[in-house]
Write a structure and sequence with these properties.
This protein is α+β, with helices and mostly antiparallel strands. Helix content is 33%, strand content 23%. The chain is built from 10 helices and 18 strands. Helix 2 links the parallel strand 1 and strand 2. The chain binds alpha-L-sorbopyranose (SOE). The site of alpha-L-sorbopyranose has 8 residues, from helix 8.
Amino acid sequence: MVGYSFMGAVHSHAWRTAPRFFDLPFAPELTALAGRNAAGVQVAADKFGWDSVETDWRRLIERDDIDLIDICSPGDTHAEIAIAALEAGKHVLCEKPLANSVAEAEKMTAVASSAAERGVYSMCGFTYRRTPALALAKRMVDDGRLGELRHVRAQYLQDWLSDADAPLTWRLDKSKSGSGSLGDIGAHSIDAAQWITGSSITGVSALMETFVKERPIGGDFIGLGGHGGTDGPRGPVTVDDAAIFTARFGGKTSGAGRTSDGGPIGVFEATRFALGRKNAMRLELNGTLGSLAFDFEDMNSLSFYDAAHEDAGFRRIIVTEPSHPYVGNWWPTGHGLGYEHGFTHQVVDLVNAISAGEQPAPSFSDALQVQKVLAAVEASAEAESRWQKV
Ligand code: SOE
């Protein structure tokens, strides 16, 4: 694995936990953790249970006791590491967004496609697909329970940047992260919406805003944010604080419950300034037969409105039944799951796909489509919200 902070920690937990709760064809071994800071990477390796450390990710590529590389470092590193790993015959799990530009994502996708022909696979970490309630939503849409889809309403709301003195971190530096709220959290909404509807976004009109243009360099880091000094030096925020856009989806692609001619229309919002909303990754779908609504802050439930039973109103499905996706391997009914479980399910699906010799999903090609939407949103916002084809 490359990287050991937030994503490195949750991925480590997943690699360790997956074989204990699911029957896997291979037993993952946490062979080596890479990070540039020798002391920091050693502390992380001891804490998360990695057997060895490297201070240069290239060593992971050279080592023949490593079969898969999990990339949990910032976006500016993804393309180089993923391409080198795939060319060296190592499978890759890469955090999202896939890259910092469409050009990089295209190169990664081309290398990934030829590697897959040699049985070397790659996957992008759009983990929310593995949240049981969203996986159930996908199943219900595929089963035609919503009929033809009309509306997609997607929000990803956090508030950890609301404090204007929260310190500058790599997530606020475009050269490292590619974009701000748009790529860090909006990308999840885009992937989830395209996956559940089975339909790609074909065009967008967008607005982006950076509310706080400069932030303290250094300070007390807490979680993703924290508090910097008020009088010390400040540096520029080079990414968006918020992004909103409207979107059109393409028509029928596959599966039941699809739209026939024109696809649904969508409204998206991604922000880290929605005070009080901590990790509200929300998705609402309206179709001709019913509606579904999900909010990650209530992640063990899914609201379903079945128009055939109008006076029943929205029904809250508690997604803790053994018949619900992934749930049967965990706790008795009613004893819900948390944020980390999606990452564990991601490992399970990845290892099973590799063992079966099948392309895992989401592929780099799926992630490239998300990258194209991100680029179109930025282009539209720069052009005073002019409609931008994807
Ligand atoms: C990782 O998948 C990620 O997008 C983080 O980068 C965000 O900061 C987090 O809030 C949601 O998950």
